[in-house]
Design brief:
heterodimer, A: alpha+beta, Chitinase A, domain 3, four-stranded antiparallel β-sheet, 9 strands, elongated, B: Immunoglobulin-like, 3 domains, 13-stranded mixed β-sheet, 19% helix
Chain lengths: 342, 794
C-alpha cells in the first residue's frame, strides 16, 4: 500500500458509461461520425468555455484541496472544461437535448422554482419545459451541461451493435497485451523434507547436508530419495505447479528457489517456513505466451472495453480538430485564447 | 547446488526417473466435480485438492455506497487488483487519485458482489442522460458524493431507507409505477458485470484466476441486516436475478432465485452466502418464515440447499460468537462490533440476540433437525472483506489503515479511527481489514471452486493465509506421521463440511487437523501458530444445544506476546501443528458439529499500527491529538490473534456409518455394498414409503427406487428383496435391511451385471445416498481402484 500519484483515470467519472438505452442508440447512430465540414468548425461560431465555468471549477478545486491549483493542475481543469464544452456543443447539434427526459424534468423543475408564488396551479411538466426553453434556461445551466456531456460521451463510446471482432484484430490485441495473457512456467517436483531448521549449524542443517551427500553418492532417484527425509503432511510431490501455486504451499522464497533448481538432480537445501528441503525437478514447462484459441473470449471482452475507450478518444479528438474554441479568462475577460480551430 | 551423479549409477537413475515421470504424468480424469462449462482442464489438477484463496464479497463503483465514497473503479479494475496489479483509490483532486493500493499476494478467485438493488438506480443517478437523473432522490444521492463522514447522514437515509430499511420496500418514484425504469437501467449494468467476469476468467490450462458473476441482496428491515451474497456457478445467469425490492423475505428470495436459476435455466446454479448476522439482531437466522410461522421441513430444506455457507467474519466484525451470549469462550472477544444493527448506532443493546452469532446458529440448526428431521443451517464457514474500494483481499493489518474500505468515507486516519457513535457499524475503529475464503478444490476453475462451496470444503481466515486441513471419520491415529494426511483423510473419512454417521461403533470418530503457518512475504513474514482448538456443539438428551471448546494442539500458554514498542513478535510459536483427536464425551445418540479453529500468536491490530504511524504514544497523553482518542481508550484491542475457522463436520446419528463394498466401473459391472446405521428413525415405514438408493460421483453411477410395499417383511425389523434376474429394479439382485431395536441396522445389497460405466476407473470420491420418507442418510468417501474394482475402505 503506497500513496500514489497515478495520473491515469482522471477522465473517469463515477459514472456508468455503458448505460444507454437501445432506442437512444438507434436515434443517434450518426453521432459516431466526426462532424461534417458543414457543421461546426465555423470560426464565427466558436465553442466557448465561459469565465463562469472556469471559476466554478477553480472554486471546487479550492474547496477540496484548500489551495489554488498549480499551473499544471489548472491546465488540466481548463482542458476538462474545453472537453465538456465540445461535448455539449455536439450533443446539442445532434439534438440529444430535445428528447431527453432528464433535461426536460430538470428544466421543468427549475421553471417551477422560478414561478413559485406566481401561479397557484400546478403546471404540467411539458408546459414548464417549453417556457424554460423560451427563456433560454437551458443554455448556461450546469446540470444540463453535465447531462449532455455525459450523454454524448456514452453515446460516442458505444458500438452501433455488439462488435464481431476479426481474428486479425484479436490476434493483434493479444500481441500487444501478451504479458497479460502469459502462461506461467510450471514444475513437477519431489522434495525431501527435514523439519525444524533454525539457522546454520542447527541439527537440521547438519542432517540435510548429510542427506544431500548421501543422495548424490547413492544416486538415489526421487521416489526413493524422498523416503529418507521426515514426513511432510502436505505430501512429497506435486505436479505442474506454477511458482504462485508452489508459494501457497511452501512460501514465496521456497518457490523462487525451487524454480531456479536444475531439472533431474537433487538441489538445495531450500528453506521453507517449515524446515529444509532437497528438491528434485522432474519436469519443467517454461512460461509462454497464450495462443489466441486459448484466450479468445477474454481477449474479445478486453478488446471491446478498449474499443469503447478508443471510440470516445477518437470522437473527442475529432471534436477538437473541428471546432474553434475560445477560453474566456475570468480575470476581466479581456484576453481570450483560441485553443484550436477547424 | 547440483548433486554429483556417478556414472555407474546413472542407469539406475534413468530407470527411477522414468517411473517418476510416469507417476507424475498419469492422465487425470475429471472426478470430484462435474464440468458444466466449456473450458480447458487445469494443468495442475490435483485429486487431493489444493488451497485457493479468494474474496467472495467485493463492491465497486457500481454499488451505491461505493459511488458515494467517490470510488471510481469498477469490476475490471477490481479483478486486476485481485491479480496483483495496483488500483487508484479516492479522493481524487482535479481528476487525479490521491491514493493507490496493491496486494502483497494475489488472490486465486474473486466474486464481485455489487448491491443489486441499486444497480439501476445508481446508474440513473450518476448518468445524466438517464430519465430520473434529476429526481430529488438522485439529488440526495449525488449530494453525498464525495461523502466525507462514515456515518450515513440523515438525507442519505431517504435514498436508502425505502429500499433497504423497510419490510415492504418500494422503488423511488423515478423508477416508474412498476419500477421498470430502474430494472431496465440495471440490465446493461448486469450485462457489463458478466462481461467483466468473462474478460478476467482464465479459461486456459494455466488456471491463474477465476472470476465469478455475483451480486449482493441487500435488505435490512428496521436496520436488521439480512444481506446475502449470491454466487453463480458459471456464466449461465438469469437476465436480472431477484433483489430485496422484489423479494423482501428470505424464503421468497431463495425460492425465486432457485426458480430463475436452477429450475428454469439449463446449466444455471447459484448459492447465497449470508453475512453480518452480527448486525441482524438475530433476524438472519430466526427459524421461521417472515410471517412468524415456524419452519416446516421444506422451509428448512430450502435454506440448507440454497445457503450452504455463511460469512463468519468481514470488515464489519466477527460473527462467530460473543462472550456472554450462550458462550463463555474467551476467544470470542475477537473483532466485536458494539452495535447490533446495520447503519445506525443507538448504543449497545440491552442484550445481543443469540442467533446473531454463527456458533449459536449452528446449534439452533441441530435443535431444528431434532424437531423437523432437517437441519436448516448446516453451514460451511468462510470470511471475506466486504470492501467498497474495489480492493478484494486487502486484509493485511498494515495495509488496511491507509486504504480503508469505504472510499472517501474512511480516507483519513481520523475517519478510520472514529468510534461507533460516529461511524456506527459501517466503519471506524471497530471495523477491521476483513478476512479471506480458502477453498480446497481440484483446480482453480469455476466448476471446481463452486463444487467445493457446495460441499462446504472451505474455511475462513481473519485475513492471514495459514493452510488448514480437517478430516473426521475412521482416520488412523498416526495420520500426522506420514506424507499422506489428505489421502488418509479422504479414504477413511470426510473433509471439512462433510457429514458423518457413527463410524467406530459407539466410540468417537477421529478428528484430524493439520495447520501450517502463513509463510508470509519477504517483507512481512507470517505469524507462528499458537494452538488448534475443536469447537463442538451438540444437542443433549433433553434436546438443548450445548457447546465446548477443546484445546487439541499447540500451547495456549506459550507466552507469546507483542513488543509494544515495535509491534514485533515476542516468544515462539509453531510452524506446523497436527493432531488426531477423539471426542472424550462422544455420544453416538447426540447430533453434533465439530469445527477446528486455528489460532496464531498475537500481533498488532491495524488500529495500533495506524495510531503509531500517526505518532500516538498512549503512555504520553500529549501525543493523543483530536480524532485519535480511541487509540488509547481501550475501545478496541491493541493486539489480535488472527485465526482460521474450518467448516464443521456434522455428526448425524441417522446417517450412514461404516460402509464396505466395491463396484466394477464397467458397462457390465457388479456392485456389492454393506452399510451400517446407528439410528434408523422409528418413523421408517417401508410399507408406505419408497426407499431410494443412489451411488454417485459427478454423475449418477447407479440408482434404484424400491416402491413402498415391495420389500418382504417376514418378521419385524427384517426387510428383503430378491430377484435373481435383476430385471425388476435396475439390476438389483438382493437387498436386505435388518433393523434392531434401538435403531442399529445393516443394509446389504448386490446387483446382477449392470451398467456401472459412469464411474471413473480411478481413485475418486463416491457418494452413497439413501432416503425414505423424511429420512436421509449419506456416506461420502474416496473410493480406491484395486485391480478391476473400485473399493471403499470401512
Amino acid at each position: 500500500m503506497a500513496a500514489g500519484d497515478a495520473s491515469r483515470g482522471w477522465r473517469r467519472r463515477p459514472v456508468v458509461h455503458f448505460l444507454v438505452l437501445g432506442a437512444l442508440l438507434l436515434a443517434v447512430r450518426g453521432a459516431m461520425a466526426p462532424p461534417p465540414e458543414s457543421q461546426g468548425g465555423d470560426p464565427a461560431d466558436p465553442v466557448v468555455v465561459s469565465a463562469l465555468r472556469l471559476a466554478e471549477l477553480r472554486r471546487a478545486y479550492f474547496e477540496q484541496v484548500g489551495a489554488d491549483p498549480s499551473p499544471e493542475e489548472d491546465a488540466r481543469l481548463v482542458d476538462e472544461a474545453v472537453e465538456e464544452a465540445l461535448l455539449v456543443r455536439r450533443a446539442r447539434e445532434l439534438g440529444l437535448d430535445r428528447d431527453d427526459r432528464g433535461v426536460r424534468t430538470w428544466l421543468a423543475q427549475k421553471m417551477r422554482f422560478l414561478e413559485q408564488g406566481m401561479s397557484s396551479e400546478l403546471a404540467p411538466d411539458e408546459d414548464l419545459y417549453r417556457r424554460a426553453l423560451e427563456l433560454g434556461l437551458d443554455r448556461d445551466d450546469l446540470v444540463v451541461r453535465r447531462m449532455l456531456a455525459e450523454k454524448m460521451r456514452t453515446v460516442a463510446s458505444q458500438p452501433p451493435a455488439r462488435e464481431q471482432l476479426s481474428e486479425t484484430e484479436l490476434a493483434d490485441f493479444l500481441a500487444r497485451n501478451a504479458d497479460r495473457y502469459r502462461q506461467p512456467g510450471r514444475v513437477s517436483l519431489f522434495h525431501v523434507f527435514v523439519s525444524g531448521s533454525r539457522g546454520a549449524g542447527s541439527p537440521a542443517e547438519v542432517r540435510v547436508a548429510a542427506l544431500l551427500e548421501r543422495l548424490g553418492q547413492e544416486s538415489r532417484g526421487p521416489e526413493e530419495g524422498v523416503r529418507l527425509g521426515d514426513p511432510f503432511a502436505l505430501g512429497r510431490q506435486w505436479r505442474a505447479k506454477s511458482q504462485h501455486e508452489l508459494a501457497k504451499l511452501l512460501g514465496i522464497s521456497f518457490a523462487e528457489a525451487a524454480f531456479a533448481c536444475p531439472t533431474r538432480s537433487w538441489c538445495g537445501p531450500v528453506r521453507s517456513p517449515y524446515g529444509l528441503h532437497l528438491v528434485w525437478i522432474v519436469d519443467r514447462e517454461e512460461a509462454r505466451p497464450s495462443r489466441l484459441d486459448e484466450v479468445r473470449s477474454q481477449v474479445a471482452e478486453a478488446r471491446r472495453s478498449e474499443l469503447r475507450e478508443e471510440r470516445l478518444q477518437d470522437f473527442l479528438q475529432a471534436l477538437r480538430e473541428r471546432y474553434a474554441v475560445v477560453v474566456e479568462h475570468p480575470a476581466g475577460g479581456v484576453a481570450s485564447t483560441t485553443l484550436s480551430g477547424g | 547446488m547440483r548433486a554429483h551423479v556417478p556414472s555407474v549409477r546413472r542407469s539406475c537413475l534413468v530407470v527411477s526417473l522414468f517411473f517418476a515421470v510416469a507417476l507424475l504424468r498419469v492422465p487425470v480424469a475429471e472426478a470430484g466435480f462435474e464440468r458444466t462449462e466449456v473450458r480447458t482442464p487445469c494443468a495442475d489438477f490435483d485429486p487431493l485438492r489444493s488451497p485457493f484463496f479468494g474474496d467472495t464479497h467485493v463492491h465497486t463503483r457500481l454499488s451505491f455506497d461505493g459511488a458515494t465514497g467517490d470510488v471510481r473503479e469498477g469490476p475490471r479494475a477490481a479483478y486486476d487488483f485481485a491479480k496483483g496489479n495496483p488500483i487508484d483509490l479516492p479522493p481524487y483532486v482535479a481528476g487525479v487519485a490521491q491514493r493507490s493500493a496493491q496486494l502483497r499476494r494475489p488472490l486465486d478467485f474473486t466474486v464481485i458482489t455489487d448491491h443489486q438493488e441499486f444497480l439501476g438506480e445508481t446508474s440513473i443517478c450518476l448518468e445524466p442522460s438517464a430519465p430520473g437523473y434529476s429526481s430529488p432522490e438522485c439529488e440526495v444521492f449525488r449530494d453525498n458524493i464525495p461523502q466525507e463522514q462514515p456515518g450515513a447522514p440523515p438525507a442519505f437515509i431517504t435514498f436508502v431507507a425505502p429500499y433497504l430499511g423497510a419490510f415492504d420496500p418500494v422503488r423511488h418514484p423515478f423508477c416508474g409505477p412498476t419500477g421498470d425504469v430502474c430494472t431496465t437501467a440495471a440490465g446493461p449494468v448486469w450485462q457489463d458485470i458478466q462481461d467483466a467476469a468473462e474478460e478476467h476468467y482464465d479459461r486456459t490450462a494455466a488456471c491463474t484466476f477465476t472470476s465469478f458473476v455475483g451480486y449482493e441482496y441487500t435488505g435490512a428491515p428496521v436496520a436488521q441486516n439480512v444481506h446475502r451474497n449470491v454466487v453463480f456457478r458459471t456464466d449461465v445467469v438469469p437476465p436480472l436475478p431477484p433483489s430485496y425490492v422484489e423479494e423482501p423475505t428470505a424464503e421468497g428470495f431463495l425460492s425465486e432465485l432457485r426458480s430463475q436459476c436452477q429450475d428454469s435455466l439449463p446449466g444455471c446454479d447459484a448459492l447465497a452466502i449470508p453475512h453480518n448476522s452480527n448486525l441482524s439482531n438475530g433476524l438472519m437466522y430466526r427459524p421461521e418464515l417472515a410471517d412468524g410461522t415456524p419452519f416446516a421441513a421444506e422451509d428448512a430444506a430450502l435454506r440448507a440447499e440454497m445457503e450452504p455457507i455463511v460469512e463468519i467474519m468481514q470488515h464489519k466484525g466477527d460473527s462467530e460468537c460473543r462472550v456472554g451470549v450462550l458462550s463463555n469462550d474467551e476467544l470470542c472477544g475477537f473483532e466485536k462490533m458494539t452495535g447490533h444493527l446495520i447503519g445506525i448506532f443507538p448504543g449497545p443493546p440491552a442484550s445481543y440476540d443469540p442467533l446473531a452469532f454463527v456458533r449459536n446458529v449452528l446449534k439452533e440448526g441441530l435443535e431444528q433437525e431434532e424437531a423437523l428431521g432437517v437441519n436448516p443451517y448446516p453451514l460451511g464457514l468462510l470470511a471475506a472483506t466486504d470492501t467498497h474500494n474495489a480492493i478484494p483481499g486487502l486484509t493485511h493489518e498494515a495495509d488496511y489503515g491507509p486504504a480503508g474500505h469505504l472510499g472517501t468515507r474512511d480516507a483519513t486516519p481520523e475517519l478510520m479511527l472514529e468510534g461507533p457513535d460516529v461511524a456506527n457499524t459501517l466503519g471506524g475503529i471497530e471495523s477491521n481489514a476483513g478476512g479471506l475464503a480458502v477453498v480446497w478444490a481440484e483446480e482453480n476453475s469455476r466448476d471446481a471452486i463452486f463444487s467445493a462451496m457446495r460441499r462446504r470444503e472451505l474455511y475462513g481466515t481473519s485475513g492471514t493465509r495459514p493452510l488448514v486441513r480437517f478430516f473426521a471419520g475412521n482416520i488412523p491415529a498416526n495420520a500426522c506421521g506420514g506424507d499422506d494426511f489428505a489421502e488418509k483423510g479422504y479414504t477413511r473419512g470426510v473433509p471439512m463440511g462433510g457429514e458423518l454417521g457413527a463410524v467406530r461403533n459407539r466410540r468417537s470418530p477421529r478428528f484430524a487437523v493439520l495447520a501450517l503457518r502463513d509463510g508470509g512475504t519477504p517483507g512481512s513474514p507470517g505469524t507462528a501458530l499458537q494452538r488448534v482448538q475443536i469447537v463442538k456443539g451438540w444437542v443433549d438428551g433433553s434436546g438443548t444445544a450445548q457447546e465446548t471448546v477443546y484445546e487439541v494442539a499447540g500451547d495456549p500458554d506459550n507466552g507469546a506476546s507483542v513488543d509494544p514498542n515495535t509491534c514485533g513478535p515476542i516468544g515462539v510459536g509453531f510452524d506446523t501443528l497436527c493432531t488426531v483427536w477423539e471426542d472424550p464425551a462422544f455420544d453416538p445418540d447426540e447430533r453434533a458439529f465439530y469445527y477446528a479453529r486455528v489460532i496464531e500468536n498475537p500481533t498488532c491490530r491495524w488500529s495500533t499500527l495506524l495510531c503509531r504511524d500517526e505518532g500516538v504514544d498512549c503512555s504520553d497523553p500529549g501525543t493523543i491529538g483530536p480524532g485519535f482518542e480511541h487509540c488509547c481508550d481501550g475501545l478496541v484491542e491493541e493486539y489480535v490473534q488472527e485465526r482460521a475457522w474450518t467448516s464443521p463436520v456434522f455428526y448425524r446419528p441417522e446417517s450412514l456409518g461404516r460402509v464396505s463394498g466395491w463396484l466394477q466401473p464397467d458397462a457390465a459391472g457388479l456392485l456389492r455394498l454393506s452399510a451400517r446405521f446407528h439410528r434408523i428413525p422409528d418413523t421408517l415405514d417401508l410399507a408406505a414409503q419408497d426407499l431410494t438408493l443412489e451411488v454417485r460421483d459427478d454423475d449418477v453411477i447407479w440408482e434404484v427406487t424400491i416402491p413402498a410395499g415391495t420389500l418382504d417383511n417376514p418378521k419385524p425389523g427384517l426387510y428383503r428383496f430378491r430377484d435373481p434376474s435383476g430385471a425388476l429394479l435396475n439390476g438389483l439382485r438382493v437387498l436386505t435391511l435388518k433393523v434392531r431395536s434401538g435403531g442399529d441396522g445393516i443394509l446389504t445389497l448386490q446387483t446382477v451385471r449392470t451398467d456401472l460405466s459412469n464411474a471413473e476407473a480411478e481413485d475418486h470420491d463416491v457418494e452413497l445416498r439413501l432416503s425414505a420418507g423424511n429420512w436421509t442418510a449419506q456416506h461420502a468417501r474416496r473410493w480406491e481402484m484395486k485391480g478391476s474394482r473400485l473399493r471403499v475402505r470401512p
